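user: Kindly work through both lines:
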Amino acid sequence: MSEDLQFAPYLQSPVGGAIRSTVPNGPALLDPGLTLLGPGGEIPVRPPGDALRMLGPEAVIGIDTRHVLRVDPPPGIQDAEPNYLVCVEFDAPQLPWLFTPARPSEGMLRPWLVLVAVETAGHPLQGGGPLPFVDVDATALPPLDQSWQWAHVQRPAGQSGPLISRLLCPLHLRSDTDYTACVVPAFQGGVAAGLSGGLTEVDQHGDAWRRDQGGVRLPVYYSWQFHTGAPGDFEQLATAIVPLSAEERGPLSGRTVDITQPWLHGPPLASADPPGARQTITVQGVLQLVDSPAEQAVTALADFASRVARHISRGTEDAVAPPLYGGRPVVRDDVEDGESGWLAELNLNPETRIAASLGAGWVRENQEWLMARAWDQVGDVREANRLRSRTAFCTAVADSVYRRSVQTLSPDETLGLAAAVGDRVRTGSELPLRTEVVVSPAPNELVAPALRRLLRRRGPVARRAGLDGESYVRRTLSGELLPPLPTAMLTRPVEARQLAGEDSVELNAKVGTALRATATARGARTLRLLSAMAPSAWANGFDTQAGALTALVARPAEGIAPAEGTTGPADALRMFQALSAVELSDLTGGLSPAFAEQSPDAVMTLAEPDTALSPDASMGDDPGAHILEFGVPVDAHGMRERLAQAFDPGPLLAARLDSTVTILSEEALAVPATPGEPVMTAPDFPAPMALALQDTAGDWFLPGSGTIPDDRAVLLQANAPFIASFMVGVNDEMNGEMRWREYPTDLRGSPFTHFWPRPDGEPDVPPVHAWDPDGTLSAQLTLGAGELDVLLIRGRLVRRYPQMVVAAVPAQSVGAADLGQSTWEHPKMVLTLDERTCAYAFVLPGDIHDWWFVLAENSYRMRFGFDNPVVPAPPYRHWSDLSWQVPEGGFADLSAMPAVPEQEPRPDRWNAATVAMVSLQRPFRVVMSARKLIGDPR
């Protein structure tokens, strides 16, 4: 860090450099010189009168606090390191020397401001005018003749700025003590101005205090408070961290569980040991030691698996039995002895059953809070289910009316019912009823209210005329009874050509324009009719003619941009119905070529333009051949069926429900097939269950964690089967609780999918119902949730430096410069177990034994100070190894250069800049081998 910075011992303005005296014991007098410039050159002139007097500390009654950039220790901190120096930084680089009544001497200049730290107890900050003040014994203040050492200027190396100034307090702080740091004047003039007002005549110039003076009252320009903790900085605490010994690792191997007699009144489990011997297993928690498999009672475990399988099976016969964890999501109610897959692994092993029961127990302890949060999330689902229930009721009622009142109608009655909504109701041809009637042989008024009144079965007209409305509808729709038509419905299109002489004769031009407009209008009508007749022909069984009609409009359809969702010929034909007359007129040019190419007269009779139909014309025995002349024959009974289907209330109400209730995601919902079934859902609790387990059953998170001494580190790994079993337990119990409270769930949801507190919030397990039934418990975890390598550190280091840098370093980078920081692996997450214990979770590729771990000080702020003295003394190689030479409560004195360290060059000069360089504390780091942290003797 010091290589990136430059320090200067002071910064004073030219006016300050012109002061007569080098000793600040009087007023700041200076003799300015003048130089006259003229034709004769430069002429020095001495101004008449006495020397000028510069403003000194006696003119200052305060400092703008906005000039303060940073203080250290931070205000209010309760655990400051006693071996570091208190400091304050200003954005004005000249500020500490701005009012010093002297000029530099031998590269040293005393500042007019001094930073002091006094114990808060017995030295309260009192209000005054114009500044607050503090009463303190002079022996608790630093010697003012050494104040030049503790003020300097800083800037980045090789740059002109930014410049800042800094004051240091040389006090060796006491441990566990409240302090008030104060910026106070160093001269009597400043004291007088701060206590009584500015521009005060000072009777006695000189220092603000003497060490033998006794009590002194000092005005305070700026202050803050902090509390010191126990001795120990990062270097001291980090080097104190050591791996666990073999004896200390023992309690972390797991918890011993006696499984000799799992059922109270049942026989003991089978055992290979002598009769009466206790059968125990070691159950490991969420975290377990690396390379430390637990010893298990194999014979007893096999007997336990067969017995618990039988007990679970009896539970299906209305008997109380052990729960089948995970059975609800996968729709299972038993498990067989010897079965493979995660369900058997979970339920037939006491270790995994214990983990699942811990999860279930946590849900039972927090059931009220969890259900309250679950009901908060289901508000929209409950409203959706209310609407679905209402829709189901309406569907049942409407379906009864539909069966009795619609399905029993005759074709004539059905047509009469649909006539009122003829423009809206669509038949099986996907055409509106009115359009299908228009392109049929029946008169267009067949769906008009006036004709429907005439055709009423018991109406006056029908009674007098003996009219059978049923027969009339059937015969006109099928073409058996044709209304008198002057011309055919569709004739061969004729392309309008330009008349001879049209360019020169005005009459010819008008006639030609009128003829072309007529031809265009006739072509547009032809396109509309063709686009409607083709779907009607498909619906009424005239497939050959429908294909020919579709082919006729294929060429004009090329000029239409396909609409989104267009899938077949019927969709393409419907596009013509949505076009305006102007848009259709642009497409009529392709009609004549299309008719010439497709030759529709091969399957249908095609009349020539302006040709009258014969009065005796009929559709005869081949109605399909006369479609272009009279329209598409419609089967009345077939139309009745299609209209009845269109009036079916079930699909209509279901479509209405779908437009009202939108299911945004089906992952957490069981979407029912019919409106009568409610929507099933599950709440989502993204809280990491690792923290919940740590809070409620910390000894199962890491068995024996309470026995770990301070200043220890150990490398652990995640216990994947335990984690997966715990997650099954919490989800299974939560589903049972929701069913008991009539929550809309189908018992297959997974409210809990997060175990680790991942910063990215990604789940650690997929929904349980989606687990691979043949996979193991470990294989169900995602994103390496069961493959974490965890470095656990306990001690004062974690408590004092929670923001320290912890990283994993591959073996090939340990010997590289700067430890190859680009290859470092940083933790995926950090778990704070308590204020003195943190677990740093990594996902490390390769063999964990080949990795190293670095603990580095987070150098986000500059610190000054000295090491705490230890016995035996460490090697003195660098300036950062310099330790305190005075006890707590004493003041450092670097007036003379201390011994030069072995690996440091001797400074050219000794001043405040050198003192800053010597006392600057470099960031420290320590590297530990994974093998030592695991306990590997290699």
